[in-house]
Amino acid sequence: MRKKSAIYTARHQHGEVYALHCRLTCWGQNFHIWVYELDGLLIETGPIRARCAVEEFVKDRRPGSVTLTHHHEDHSGNAGWLTREQGLPLYMGAKTAEILADPYKIPKYRNLVWGQMDKVRGWVADSIETEHFFLRSLATPGHADDHIAWVVEEKGWAFTGDLYLAPHLQYGLKSESIHTMIQSIQSLLALPVDTIFCSHAGIVVEGRQGLEKKLVFLEWLRDETLRLSHQGMNPLQIASRLLDRRLGAVLFSCGELSPVHLIRSIIRDDKR
Questions:
Q1: Which CATH topology does 6-207 take?
Q2: What sequence ranges are listed for the domain Metallo-beta-lactamase (predicted)?
Q3: Containing H/E element for 227?
C-alpha cells in the first residue's frame, strides 16, 4: 500500500473486475472502502475524503458510467463530482435517487470520516447493460431502506454494497433492521452467486459461504435475543450477553454505532 496523507490505497483485480481499496485513518481508527470498475461501469464512488484516489482510479480505468448500491456518503460521496465534472451518467435505484436529490445532513462523526454527500441527479435503473455484461438490481434493504445489490448472474458475481460486511456483526446503526437484512441475504442466496464484491470487506471469492455464515449468525442472534427478551432481560443486558463490547465505536460515533442497536432492531421488528 502507498500512503497519501491519512489515506492508503491499493489496486486489485478479479477477472474483469478492477478494484480500488482505500483505507482512511481517523483518530486512530481505520475505515475501509472499495470502489469497483467492470467493463466501463464504475460501481460505487467512494467518499469525498478519498476523492484524489478515486480521481486517479477513474483516470486510469476511464469508465463511461456510474452506479450505486445505496445513498450513504461512503458510497455516493463522489457521485456529484463524477456527473458534473466528468460528465458521467449515474444510474441508481428509485429510493436512492429520491434521497440524493436532497440529501440530509449526516452526523458529525460520519462527516469527519467520509465527508458530506452532495446533491446529485441521475437515472433510475433496475438493470444495466455494458458491452459484455448484464447487471440486474436486487432489492436488499436492511442496512438502508434504499439498498440494492447489482448481480451478474452469468459470472456468479454480486456487488453487495453493505449487505455482507463480515460473517458476524458486533454493532449496528439505529436505522438498521436485522429481520429485513435476513430476508435480503436469503433473496441473494436464491440466485447463482459465488463471488461477492463488498464495499468494505473487498473481494470475497467464497462469497456464498460468507453470506451463509452471516445468515446463520443473524438468525442465531435473532432467536437468542427474543429468547432472552421473553425471559425479561432488557436490550443492554442482552447486548452484553451476546455481543462483544465495542466502546471505541460507540464513543467515536456518539452512540450512533452500538451493539444495542442490533438487539433493539430485533425486538422492534418482533412487535410489528
A1: Metallo-beta-lactamase; Chain A (3.60.15)
A2: 32-200
A3: helix 207-230
